[in-house]
Amino acid sequence: MKVTEHIENAQGKTLFSFEIIPPQKGKSIQELYDNIDPLMEFKPPFIDVTTSREEYIYVDKGNGLLEKKLTRMRPGTLGICASIKHKYNVDTVPHVLCGGFTKEETEYLLVDCHYLGIDNVMALRGDAMKDEQSFIPKEGGNDFATDLVHQINQLNQGKYLHNVMDIDNKANFCIGVAGYPEKHLESPSLQSDLKRLKEKVDSGADYVVTQMFFDNAKYFEFVAKAREIGITVPIIPGIKPIAVKRHLQILPQIFRIDLPEDLINAIEKCKTSADVRQVGVEWSIQQSLELKNAGVPVLHYYSMGKSENIRQIAKAIF
């Protein structure tokens, strides 16, 4: 079932969903199951599974020589989606990236999703590689998320890359995209970023999931401005509980977001890691309660593969 259909069927009730990351290659999927199991009592209608782009590693060749190799440390997004869908009877949302993929590779991935009965995809440009100063698309790939949304929408119409086939079973993907309440780090302004979001919606996006934020006022302002320029699709807030003290430095640096002073002060006073986690849980509970009372369609949690703090939050909300 499509994410938008889940929202419609809920008839105004706020739903619970979360996002996971695939384990590194060589790791067992059981650890992932162990972290999903405690969250299933809250009946998530869908679970997002991230996709990691390629990265360079250095292989020791002996004699002091290193060979630079391109690899993916966390493959398996589609396989995990299929496995979760089968094991838990829940819809899954694979993340589909521009970065690191040609349009042909993207088309093959979408065809596989269609074969597996996966109805939803999250279309993202993806980040720059670690040794790149800015995002560089793969040769033959999509440059921007808007281009990727357009390709998916074309496939929904039965239009493949190199020919229009005689289609008797078209794909009908529900397309999610990212939104940035504090603007994308590369955008010159929030208004400019909203224009890019409008382009994604006009190209066929069906719903928006926001980047994490810690001040609900920024989400409400973002939604209001999005509605003003004609974006009418559901806008789902993304919530990330602070889990370790170094998040005070890491999250603003990576995502270019602001943390409220009250949250910073509370975390800085913490004596132990358990204290930090508890502050993160309590802050997210207050965020979630306010958002739920405002009637958001879904509360979407960035779990990073760990479930205990998400379970505590969900138990207080749902």
Automatic annotation (TrEMBL):
<comment type="pathway">
    <text>One-carbon metabolism; tetrahydrofolate interconversion.</text>
</comment>
<keyword id="KW-0285">Flavoprotein</keyword>
<dbReference type="Pfam" id="PF02219">
    <property type="entry name" value="MTHFR"/>
</dbReference>
<keyword id="KW-0560">Oxidoreductase</keyword>
<comment type="similarity">
    <text>Belongs to the methylenetetrahydrofolate reductase family.</text>
</comment>
<dbReference type="InterPro" id="IPR029041">
    <property type="entry name" value="FAD-linked_oxidoreductase-like"/>
</dbReference>
<protein>
    <recommendedName>
        <fullName>Methylenetetrahydrofolate reductase</fullName>
        <ecNumber>1.5.1.54</ecNumber>
    </recommendedName>
</protein>
<dbReference type="InterPro" id="IPR003171">
    <property type="entry name" value="Mehydrof_redctse-like"/>
</dbReference>
<dbReference type="GO" id="GO:0035999">
    <property type="term" value="P:tetrahydrofolate interconversion"/>
</dbReference>
<keyword id="KW-0520">NAD</keyword>
<dbReference type="GO" id="GO:0071949">
    <property type="term" value="F:FAD binding"/>
</dbReference>
<keyword id="KW-0486">Methionine biosynthesis</keyword>
<dbReference type="GO" id="GO:0005829">
    <property type="term" value="C:cytosol"/>
</dbReference>
<comment type="pathway">
    <text>Amino-acid biosynthesis; L-methionine biosynthesis via de novo pathway.</text>
</comment>
<dbReference type="GO" id="GO:0106312">
    <property type="term" value="F:methylenetetrahydrofolate reductase (NADH) activity"/>
</dbReference>
<keyword id="KW-0028">Amino-acid biosynthesis</keyword>
<dbReference type="GO" id="GO:0009086">
    <property type="term" value="P:methionine biosynthetic process"/>
</dbReference>
<keyword id="KW-0274">FAD</keyword>
<dbReference type="InterPro" id="IPR004620">
    <property type="entry name" value="MTHF_reductase_bac"/>
</dbReference>
